[in-house]
Predict the structure.
Amino acid sequence: MFKLSVTLFLIVISFDVYCQGSKFDEWNDVKYQNAKPSGSDYMTALENDVIYYTNLARMNPKLFGETYLKKYLDSTKKYDSYSNTLIAELKAMKPLPPFKTDKILYDEAMKHAKDMGKSGKVGHNSSSGTSYLDRVKLLRKTYFGIAENCNYGYSTALDITLGLMIDEGVPDHGHRKNMFHEKLNLLGVSFQPHKTYGNNCVMEFGTKE
């Protein structure tokens, strides 16, 4: 079973994604069309975009660091030990295949995001105290490996994606590891209102291999 992580993001800074320039133009290459989720009309545009940006980072980590991450950090001024480790890792990381969407994982992500949203709680346990492993025990019969990321307070797809990748306050960078795990290849994302933090986003990862 893959390691799980959760962190709480309290400082919300919206990032304007109006990006131009030669580096960003490289993303227009037809090979990056595979980053766009397909067959996922059950997810909202924002939920699909979280997967899209995550896939771009997996497909070309170095370029992602030089474009989306750099522009985000330049605009938010959040250069610190966490963002610096992400910059270094993206430069050295080998490309990975994009995630494919999965309806069962989406359903689990939505269930947990709605539960946390209504209760105002955070974390992987359900509002009634059921542990993550007990929550997903049926999934463990179908998937060889599963993992989950939870994000609170961010309201745009890129803010959510980059916030989890930077993983501020999480020493082992568990969210980042899930997003770049070479064995995980399936993903469902749900974005729901949250009683305490305005909204929350859950990413449910899996692999059947």
